[in-house]
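Q: what sequence does this backbone want?
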């Protein structure tokens, strides 16, 4: 009868054919993680070593798992293999499609314990929580401006770079903010979006 292995110095354990009730004879000597397949243990060991053997041939990205590289490569190819049967929305990542499906079901499984706000995905709840904590993790390296939102920092950076990505298709006007372009377009359309409520 084999004894439970302590793992090699690299943390890779031997097959512990000891009739383990878990049916997971391969064990990590670093943290005790167990698995049924040796290849899974090899993959797990990269969490300890930091090894990322799967390299993107189009940029400097590398991954510990091939599936992560396959997902990353879709950024270059534009491939979106996951499609919503309701509306045709397409996603490069399966979890993004799952998240999208909640727009049809109305499901919001993530809830704020402070105020009851509900969110479709955890990242939206994490972002919301900054209202309560006051955390502003995004900081401008130019002037020290801080914000709770990455998108707000991107918009703020335009004050330093002078970037004006919103272009008028009728003249040479461009703007740093979409709302400014929308206001400008009224010049061409003759629209007057702001109306006095008093008659």
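A:
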């Amino acid at each position: 009868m084999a004894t439970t292995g302590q793992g090699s110095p690299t943390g890779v354990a031997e097959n512990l054919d000891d009739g383990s009730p878990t049916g997971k004879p391969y064990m990590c000597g670093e943290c005790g993680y167990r698995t049924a397949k040796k290849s899974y243990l090899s993959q797990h060991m990269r969490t300890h070593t930091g090894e990322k053997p799967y390299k993107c041939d189009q940029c400097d990205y590398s991954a510990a798992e091939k599936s992560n590289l396959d997902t990353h490569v879709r950024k270059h190819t534009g491939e979106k293999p996951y499609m919503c049967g309701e509306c045709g929305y397409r996603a490069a990542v399966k979890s993004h499609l799952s998240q999208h499906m909640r727009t049809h079901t109305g499901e919001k499984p993530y809830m704020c314990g402070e105020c009851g706000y509900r969110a479709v995905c955890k990242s939206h709840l994490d972002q919301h929580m900054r209202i309560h904590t006051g955390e502003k993790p995004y900081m401008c390296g130019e002037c020290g401006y801080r914000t709770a939102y990455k998108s707000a920092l991107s918009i703020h950076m335009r004050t330093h770079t002078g970037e004006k990505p919103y272009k008028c298709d009728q003249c040479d006007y461009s703007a740093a903010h979409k709302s400014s372009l929308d206001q400008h377009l009224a010049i061409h359309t003759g629209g007057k979006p702001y109306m006095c409520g008093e008659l």
